Amino acid sequence: MSNTNQMPREEGIDHTLSLMREGYMYILNRRHGFNSDVFETRLFGKKAICMGGKEAAEVFYNTEKFRRKDAAPNRAVQTLLGKNGVQALDGQDHRHRKEMFMSIMSPDGLKKLTDITKNQWEMAVDKWEQIDEIILYEEVQEIMYRTACQWAGVPVQEDEVKKLTKDLVAMFESPAAIGPKHWLGRYARNKVEKSIGELINEVREGRVNPPENTALHTFSWHRNLEGNLLDTETAAVEVINILRPIVAIAIFINFTALAVHHYPEEREKLESGDERYAQMFVQEVRRFYPFFPFVAALVKKDFTWNSYKFEEGTLTLLDIYGTNHDPKIWENPDVFSPDRFAEWEGSPFTFIPQGGGDYLMGHRCAGEWVTIEVMKVSLDYLANRMEYDIPDQDLSYSMVSIPSIPHSKVVIKNVKRRI
After folding, report:
1. Which DSSP string corresponds to 375-400?
2. Which CATH number is 222's domain given?
3. Looking at the 3D structure of the chain, how many domains does it have?
4. Angle at which helices 136-152 and 232-262 pack, to 10 degrees?
5. Which run of H or E residues covers position 193?
6. Is residue 350 a contact partner of residue 54, using CB atoms and an 8 Å limit?
7. Structure confidence at residue 273 (pLDDT)
8. Residue 4, domain member (yes or no)
9. Rounded to two decimals, what is the model's pTM?
10. In terms of residue numbers, what domain contains 147?
């Protein structure tokens, strides 16, 4: 007698279009429909398994059961991720490369990052006071670009700032897009990789000397397990894996501004300067609003989980958004409530806005600490250090478009520094 059950299965030839039409809700809708945290479907022309929830995250981040190599769709590799980056590695290669990233996330490194972020916000407020109206999402992208470059040791040419900011934004706005917007992301990826690759060569030739313990310095001189320097293309991809995600924090900061506006009772709590509450607020923004919809892996070898068979090589998607809104994990998950983090124990499999599991051994985002620190600084400015008006506008956001941002990108007017 077989001890496996038939996994709930979505009928049809292929459901890639449904995935694109439903965006963040695609997996969650079917988890509700099947009353199951795991189901089988067909995506990108092949069999796929979708799963969500705490137990699903625990098995998904088991490196004995899943691998990341070749898991990401090509359109994501060509825009968001780049080739041969840390996200696509497994085993000792992954751990060794991840150590390279974690080496720049020291307390001193994060303190330097927060200082840079504060300085960039100060300069931005000075500029905004002279402007009647600004589009916050676009302005914050530039703040994040300048912050990322300074922290990573990448020289900034003033006349290139706006163009290079848009190139990095195109990388994370284009993976799920169709048509010209997607191809713009591919073009931007190729262009920035070439530019950063040339910079790395200049570092190795001694013509550019970034500060030690910065990403540009560390990654340029990093050696793989065989003792060889990373090839220029791969080193460039990894430097971009610092720059691009920091610029992408602009999405979270835009939602932070939205939360400050929509929940004035929470803003009042922030005015006390309680850093613990600021951390709770930031965590709830990361849980509540859409960021990553899901993450992909391939089954490493046949195994059975919850009486369902997983076959080697099967594409598997973990529901990031749905796990962060799972009523079995979170009480009233569709209510914005920072207080839920007051007693939160920090499970790496229940709260996964930037992936789950262990930082070093697993594939949880190495930049999560960066995100939190940058968001806390940004929240302080949005809630406490600036006064501004938010005129009537469309502050709704799509659950289909990936990434999602408020439709108006949050327009603010009459910015003044709070004394």
Report:
1. HHHHHHIIIIIEEEE--S----B-SS
2. 1.10.630.10
3. 1
4. 140
5. helix 180-204
6. yes
7. 77
8. no
9. 0.94
10. 16-417
